[in-house]
Amino acid sequence: MVNALVPETAGRAHRPRSAAAPAPAAGIRARARRRQAVVAYLFLAPALLFFVVFLLVPLGFALLLSMSHWAGFALGDIDPVGLDNFTGLLADGSAFLTPVLTNTLLFALGTVALALAGSVVVATCIDNLRFQGLWRTLYFLPIVTTVVAVGNVWKYMYEPGGLANGVLNALGLGSVAFLTDPDMALPSVVVVQAWASVGSAILILTAGLKSVPESYYEAAALDGAGPVTVFRRITLPLLRPSLLFVCITQFLTGLQSFALISVMTKGGPGDATEVAALEMYRQAFVHGDWGTASAAAFLLFVVILVVTLVQLWLFRRNGEDA
Known about the structure:
single chain, 322 residues, MetI-like fold, 2 domains, two-stranded antiparallel sheet, 14 helices, 75% helix
């Protein structure tokens, strides 16, 4: 009797499960994935809330204001005006096109040219020196200094009795009205902006130089290539990603510059250094025209977007041609 039950029990023990048996396991896995998704969204909630409250909501409000007339919370309601603010800024003879937008583009281009050239030269020199960390720290100091302090120091250096004119007088070149001459004011501020931002570019480029394999330079030395050829044929092409990043970030910094120009020239003399960010500030906080200021901000955003896309296209095209 006992022996007769053993095969039956063993048969049940080894009997294969039905096809429907994996269903509970699949349900458990699905519930686990849902719990993981909930936990992930809970961790992301603060960042998403910050993004919505401080980015999307102000962006939507600025878009509303750009098509309205509004003088502030305590001065009146929001009156829709359609595209009048944009057409006023883009009309013939508009001060926003000339000189504001022109000065903004010239300021950004000058900043990129000086900062890029200076950072490439300095980063290449630092890469061949001892105590590289010390040199990088010294060049990075202007970045951690407030813009107001930098502007005031350079403003005093540009004074008729300042350091800059003192050096020129010692060389017998005569004094220069750096900040009061309409032809010299914008280039003078460009020099300060490039000097203040070159430290970050040097850090990025020195990191890019460290990523270039030494075997390339060793092969070039065996082939008898000179320093200029090595720099032009090896260093610059391999630095292309770092150069692209520096070029874009410096251009964006130049297009959005406000504090430095406000401290040094306040847009003068006349409108020689009037730039878009300063014009937006004046329209909103001085003239109380928030609609025009918001429209100018969106136009500047379009300029930044177009310039960035053009830079990306040019660098990719040059990379393919190389």
